[in-house]
Design goal:
Layout (H helix, E strand, L loop, with lengths): L11 E5 L5 E8 L3 E7 L2 E7 L8 E7 L3 E2 L3 H8 L11 E11 L4 E10 L2 E16 L5 E12 L18 E15 L1
Antiparallel strand pairs: 1-4, 1-11, 2-3, 2-11, 3-6, 4-5, 5-7, 7-8, 8-9, 9-10, 10-11
Length: 184
Amino acid sequence: MTAAANYGQLTGTYEIDPAHTRIGFVARHAMVTKVRGAFNEFSGTATIDGDNPEKSAASVAITAASIDTRNADRDGHLRSNDFLAMEEYPEITFTSTAIKQTGDNEFDVTGDLTVRGVTKSVTIPFTYEGTAQDPFGNTRIGFEGSVVINRKDFGVTWNAPLETGGVLVSEKVTLEFEVSAIKK
């Protein structure tokens, strides 16, 4: 979008549409390639104050066991105590603590990200992608954003050294959000 949106029209409460939303991640593997994955089960809401975006809020809860990298063995390892320890920590959560408009359609959403029981503040830059009426009469909004975190900050420390130097899994992980939400 090139022009600023009329955010006043967006005021309301929205629920994330899991069928049209992707919450994913990217991590470097063996120092030579990237592994991409996503979480298939999550829920979330956003309360938007279009006239004063700083009063808006958002929260997301992700089922850790729903991790999907298209490889069953890898997914099993990621669910284990080496990584997400999903039996002890079944959810990954994010709750906003501040929202700041940084451009016509750009927002920094700062909040508490909790992984493996460790909570850290992260700021995710989001871009407002637009609003549409879907064929079912729902008002939809779209946002996209990403942020790089260090997995060790959240107690996810497992790794394996490579004979050629380096490690099997990068410490830096990019979290990716492509969100479609429906006005309630």
